[in-house]
TrEMBL record:
Cofactor: pyridoxal 5'-phosphate
Name assigned to this protein: Alpha-1,4 glucan phosphorylase
Gene Ontology terms: cellular component: cytoplasm
One GO MF term: glycogen phosphorylase activity
Database matches in Pfam families: Phosphorylase (PF00343)
Broad EC category: transferase
Amino acid sequence: MDATHFADRFTTTLRHLRGVDLHSASDVDLRTALAHTVRAELIDTWQTTHGNPSTTPQRHVAYLSAEYLLGTQTRNALLATELTDTAREALASLGLSLDDITSREVEPGLGNGGLGRLAACFMDSLATLEIPATGYGIRYDYGIFRQTFQDGNQHEQPDTWLAHGSPWEISHPERAVTVHLGGHVDGDNTTRRWVPERHVLAIPCDYLVPGYKSHTVNLLRLWSARATDAFDLTIFNSGDYEKAVAARTYAETISHVLYPEDSTPQGRTLRLTQQYFFAAASLHDLLTRHLKAGRSLHTLPDAVTIQLNDTHPVIAIPELMRLLLDEHGLSWDDAWHITQQTFNYTCHTLLPEALEVWPLDILGPLLPRHLEIIFAINHHFLDDLRRSGADELRVRSMSLIQEHPVRAVRMAHLATVGSRTVNGVAELHSELLRTSVLAQFASYWPDRFTNVTNGVTPRRFLALANPELASLISDTLNVGDRWLKDLDLLRGLEDHVDDPAFIAAFREVKHNNKERLARTLANRDGIELNTNAMLDVMVKRLHEYKRQSLRILHVITQYAKMKNGLIDLATVTPRTVFFGAKAAPGYRLAKETISLINAVATTLNADDEIRPYLSIAFPANYNVTLAETAIPAADLSEQISLAGKEASGTGNMKFALNGALTIGTLDGANVEIRELVGPDNFFLFGMTEPDVVQRQRDGYHPHTVYEQSADLALAIDTISSGAFSPSEPGRYESLVSDWLWNDRFMALADYEDYARCQEAVDRHYANPDQWTRSAILNVARTGFFSSDRSIRDYQTRVWQRPTK
Ligand code: Z2T
């Protein structure tokens, strides 16, 4: 398609779809028409892999995830279809700017953080690798909240991403699936029958997922809840019109809003309803497809493999059992074999409080038949366990049911028992799963456990986010853009690490990216960014274990020393410390940390003497769109979680691939990043995971650490003095007392080593050639972290494993 043709289709779409011409078109009209023009191209010329499954010899991959943090769609679709230049030229011929139109696109923020963004990267790689796959999830009316700051405190606003429609979505109300809820179970010992109390409709809303230059389009099918007419009758059988409308609203709350907790779940009935709602609708879809193709249920594991993204969709395991037993009349053993061979489970955490459990008094009333099935699975499992010689202590700790503090289903145990493979998301994480969290399961079923280290899509996070680096890479490697599908080719950049022209070009790209970020922040937030300072970036959800507190404590020490004349300003490496972080709305300590960072920012940035050397940029509402501008501009990437707590991290990979150096602990995928880039190109500090365990055993007393570190005490005392809250000196008392008397994630214990390491960062940066060399080597050596590699690992280690 040439530019004239594109322009023609675009104006026609504008007229037919929006009823406007070029002169009367609004922003929304232009954006919508552009999306539809590209979408039509995807539909016309690309092969959808969602058709009849019998045409594909490969197993169909069903990815089940409660979250997809997609980012904007249009530029990615143009990139995939190689239509970017055509569209730009076409729009220019109409007096329009592609960049203007796409810059106002609203991102679907249907996820919290790493887990949701990983699902989006995996969808991109599945399509790029031409693997027939469907992503299943929930079409939340409101995604992750929009964050604003008022007096430095976080406020949450509803995310109205659907306000102007959703041009990338194709919804099919006529293909609604019914999902049942509540009620009771009838029947005798041999035949059990669920008699649900109510039901809702699940409407499929499809997103096309184009692979990069692959001519494959996969589907992301997100379910939206809709009330049935019967729903009002069964719940509020009153004949009252207002109540009937209220009942509809109740049903539709199921897909209303994304729960904003990252890594720490909230055990609410509505959340479990969401999980069952999308798991049940997705299984219905998969089984219907399978049966329509004339296949037997016994061959399900040969045709379909289901990947469970953490425990959020794990209720699908008893649901498949229910379908096979109650709806299709299979025997328990056959049903269990099929189920257990179909599912695979990815675990994303090590934090005990992040492991989902569902109290029986929530699960039972909502899904009575599923609870029976879970008990039966447990019964079979524990029998086997006892037969293998396990004592009662072991049986109790491996049970699918916990007894204390309340009786509840342990979803990670259910997932492990009901899956063919269990994987962690980085080498260290998978190892810790095997040796601690799921150790007893790993010794019982050693072959079931494997690792797949996470990855990120180079299409979005290099080609789209960093076009200047992408073209420098293409020019340098002389392979066109083949490296975008074969990221190991980045290794070729090592040959140019001593080439002065390449070094200069690389440095210029970084500087231009800083200028671009400065423009974005000026427009978006009214923040002035010093583009001549080192850009030191920490962007991720606000969580104690990630230790934003450690970062801000060190900034405060540096500030206090500068103010007290303990640092000669002439020797300082100027830095801008950039934060982006949302706190879960009910997470008190996290919100206090946001307030403190903003207070320190206000003080530093207002100080004309200090600002040129040390400043803070903390734009509100960090999201995928801002990540795409911030990450390519970064010099330094902060990955400073307490060792053993961050399962993988994926931001760490995006930074390294964009030529930032990491300061980090030996945690998650940092371990693998450091091994690949080499110790000279990575700033390592802090306790190792075994150190942490030992220190915890010995008894950790943060107050003692405070007493023994003058620099740390300086930071904490400066806060306590009210330097950042003059009208309320005690404002941050809760943070200070938590550090001194609790400090669950040992920020204080790692403080001195962190401060030492930051000095090494300054020295390295002081030599620009040395720094740029390290930055180049970070890019050249981290091709491993392409999500294409992750997906290939899933293929060989998980999905293609022969069924037993
Ligand atoms: C999440 O984003 C992650 C783990 C969770 O555990 C839940 C959520 Cl919402 C239940 C993150 C991990 O914290 C991060 O280390 C990892 O890189 C990411 O998932 C993708 O695996």
